[in-house]
């Protein structure tokens, strides 16, 4: 009996020592795999991406798509008032300057008064030639009486409109896909109304972008050519006889106008006798 118990005791003792060694090995392995500073809870998931940022837009599949960098948009405008000696000669010089700078006249207006001649021009010129055109007018046409030049940076406005336009086009495609799978007539009408509103907004945004591009690519210059007339030279050619006859004519015309004005009051003349009759009758009753 002792011979059986003694080997069994040694076997149990060996198994216990092995189990303790295995537990220590497992604990050591876990400490090596998961350090203490990484045992803490995992960080929360990142927030969902924004709808569309200013640097990217979403494609129809929802994948961000980078928008091309928009170059700076600057609108240049100006106005000049120039005194010249001869309007026709100045026009010839202006045509040469316009051809040289690839510009054109958008609007032209001429006025001839007793004191001066005016030629007002609205000129459109490529953006890169604007400064050269202004210098040509300042140096070669006449005496510059006034000059105002302004620059307006519309890059931010152009960028905002472009981003909103990209958003609206994405929503428009999604609404069109929803329209294909609409189950009821009410849903179809609501989706069609949303599509119509988006199409109108897209047309307005695209029109605004085209307008900004036009103003950026072609600058506007308002030019007013001015020639003063010398009144003394004109009046000196009129003799005394002509001026005397003109005075008689003006006097006669004034008398005729006065006479016709009196005649136009004839209804009041008809009332005058009736008023006098009533006044006398009232006076006689008062005396009695």
From TrEMBL:
<feature type="transmembrane region" description="Helical">
    <location>
        <begin position="255"/>
        <end position="279"/>
    </location>
</feature>
<dbReference type="InterPro" id="IPR025645">
    <property type="entry name" value="DUF4349"/>
</dbReference>
<keyword id="KW-1133">Transmembrane helix</keyword>
<keyword id="KW-0175">Coiled coil</keyword>
<keyword id="KW-0472">Membrane</keyword>
<protein>
    <submittedName>
        <fullName>DUF4349 domain-containing protein</fullName>
    </submittedName>
</protein>
<feature type="coiled-coil region">
    <location>
        <begin position="172"/>
        <end position="215"/>
    </location>
</feature>
<feature type="domain" description="DUF4349">
    <location>
        <begin position="72"/>
        <end position="280"/>
    </location>
</feature>
<keyword id="KW-0812">Transmembrane</keyword>
<dbReference type="Pfam" id="PF14257">
    <property type="entry name" value="DUF4349"/>
</dbReference>
